[in-house]
Amino acid sequence: MAKHYSPSQRSGADNRILTPISAMHTIAYLGPPGTFSEEAAIAYADNRSDAAYLPLTSIPAVVTAIETGAACVGVLPIENMLEGSVTFTLDLLIHETSLRIVGEIVIPIRHYLVAREGLTLSAIKVLYAHPQSLGQSRRFIERCLPGVDTIASLSNSAAPAEALADERSAAAISTFRAAELTGASILAHDIADNTSNVTRFIVLARDDAAATGIDKTSFCFGFTEDRAGVLVHALQVLADANINMTKLESRPSKAVLGQYIFLIDFEGHRTDPVVAHALDQIKAQTGMFKLFGSYPIWKAHD
Predict the structure, then answer these.
(1) 148 Cα distance to chain centroid
(2) Which distant-in-sequence residues (6+ apart) come within 8 Å of 283 by Cβ?
(3) Strand 100-108 relative to strand 198-205: parallel, antiparallel, unpaired?
(4) Contacts of 15 (CB under 8 A, 6+ apart)
(5) For the domain bounded by 9-109+197-205, which CATH number is listed?
(6) Class of the domain covering 112-189
(7) In whole numbers, what is the pLDDT of the chain averaged over residues?
(8) For range 223-248, the mean pLDDT
(9) CA distance 161 to 169
(10) Does residue 180 contact residue 54 with C-beta atoms inside 8 Å?
């Protein structure tokens, strides 16, 4: 059951935002419980005993929870290995919030076939699954569940609950966590066509992350003048500084047709002198510039 949290308080003396005690170790995420987003939030907490989890119904709700002090950080999906970037998250970072990225988590996307205890694979007549999970597990379904009726679920965590409530011989494609929460039995594991699929999540907070020595910086920029070479010249700054760019993509500016915002990730922390100088040079060349944050590069625990 989710805890209830009081709103942030503002100090009249120095106008600082004070985080409520109940929210100091609260991690907001895109719910409901049992999703890959919850797995990412749990991984970020790294077994911290005082961590509390706040599942919310939308990506904007996670951002608002952090901005208003209902949570100290929030976890949001930003990129999947097969499907690409989560554009809703990117657009929110560009246009709607000043929160900083303070961390990242990479979660393996593992799909499980689950059902009530005692149901066998050959007896399954109905399959509940999120449409994306259904598409990613097409080969297993065609080979092992031919002719089974499929029903779309709103999430990977809703699917097993719906299957267990169905009086027919129903199964579901689920996360391990959702199967654990609902008490469903696992009939098969790693049923996705691509078993190496992963999703990258970012952690948002109000304050910057300190340098660790193994960091990544994310930012975006755009141009007011459309002329040959403007993007090349901006990117050349990173090359000249020997800064390794790890990601480059674009999103519509939402202001002018054909005008784009460019998003970049590179290795290094914004407080490093070389990095700071490069960012200043790029900022001077662009009409729009926004730093999303510098944060530790994710390293899975053994």
Answers:
(1) 32
(2) 221, 289
(3) antiparallel
(4) none
(5) 3.40.190.10
(6) alpha beta
(7) 90
(8) 92
(9) 13
(10) no
Sheet holding 288-296, edge to edge: 245-252, 260-267, 215-222, 288-296
**What pLDDT is recorded for position 235?**
95
According to the model, what pLDDT value does residue 25 have? 87
Q: What angle do CA 246, 216, 264 make, to 5 degrees?
A: 45
Q: Residue ranges of the domains in the chain?
A: 9-109+197-205, 112-189, 215-296
**Assigned token pair, 158:** 């809703």
Tokens standing for residue 43 = 């991984």
Give per-residue pLDDT as tens, 65-101.
999 999 999 999 999 998 899 999 999 999 999 999 9
Confidence grade of residue 301 (pLDDT, cut at 50, 70, 90)? low
Q: How far apart are CA 227 and CA 60, in angstroms?
A: 35
Predicted TM-score (pTM) of the model is 0.85
Per CATH, is 215-296 categorized as 3.40.50.1820? no
Residue 97 burial (CB count, 10 A): 16
Contact (Cβ atoms closer than 8 angstroms) between residue 129 and residue 159: yes
CA atoms of 101 and 219, how far apart (whole Å): 10
Q: Which residues are registered as beta bridge partners of 50?
A: none
Query: Per the structure block, which two tokens stand in for 113?
Result: 């076939």
Q: Please name which of 33, 21, 19, 106 lies closest in space to residue 67, comparing C-alpha atoms.
A: 19
